Amino acid sequence: MTVILGIESSCDDTSAAILKDGVVLSNIIASQKVHEAYGGVVPELASRAHQQNIIPVVSEAIKKAGLTIQDINAVAFTRGPGLLGSLLVGTSFAKGFAIANHLPMVEVNHLQAHILANFIKEPGVESRHPSFPFLTLLVSGGNSQLIIVRDYLDMEMIGQTIDDAAGEAFDKCAKVMGLPYPGGPVIDRLAKEGNPERFTFNKPQIPGLDYSFSGLKTSFLYFLRDELKKNPDFIQENLNDLCASLQKTVIDILMSKLKKAAKQTGIKQIAIGGGVSANSALQKAVHDEAERSGWEVFIPRLGFSLDNAGMVAVTGYYKYLAGQFIGLDAPPYARTTLG
Which of 171, 235, 328, 329 is 20 to 30 A from 277, alpha carbon to alpha carbon? Predict the structure, then answer.
């Protein structure tokens, strides 16, 4: 029996999970509402909330799994990338827990964990998993990347954003429209009632498989500025259409490179990961393209698409089996890439 305690604290969610022989028995998440008043995550407030949440969250994860601390074989923790203060809380707790219970530690790359969320198993739930090699579109608030996954621990990034990420574009544009944080889910909801063809925004012409979203944000901001000069109520009167048109533009940018990558690599196993993978219009676009191109699509359910410790635990499980451990002197890192 192999039992992994997973700990995730890269941003504003404190999460702990227990995985037994590849099956996630518990996945507890404590979200932080304090940031809504500021329109974005405040790093100092996030790290303080992690300090308050980490012990009860871990305790609840172990209790819900029906196991004890003595059953745990290793501690897997998110080392980065993320907010350094938040990562310090998770990393420090993992080290203390490992020392107190004489356990080995496994570091986890947050991006790799989002990809391996596609391999999470749950008790009594029939699940589908991609076969190797597969192509992953990783989209979140901080990352937009295209990755070839050749094995659990063998990944190659073939495209990435050169500036801002898709999730950041959603959140920043939502803030300009006066929508609450996080803006991505709100835009998704309002867009369902809007006309995606109503407005047109800039789509960057970036060579290769890289992305760019800073130009879209600027285009959107200037468009609203000019329209508000003519009509101060423009946003409220056109809110649904604005959200639908913005969302269509972001998804068109994402899908154009995903289709190009699939064609270049010849890979038809397509996985989506990261928080933006929960966007309903993106999921529809991927499934529609799958019907046209013969793709087989894999998207983790919502609870495992957002930041969570279940994906950390499953990544830690495969690294544990490979004997990839790390010492107590390992610091967290705010920025890194796969590999």
Answer: 235
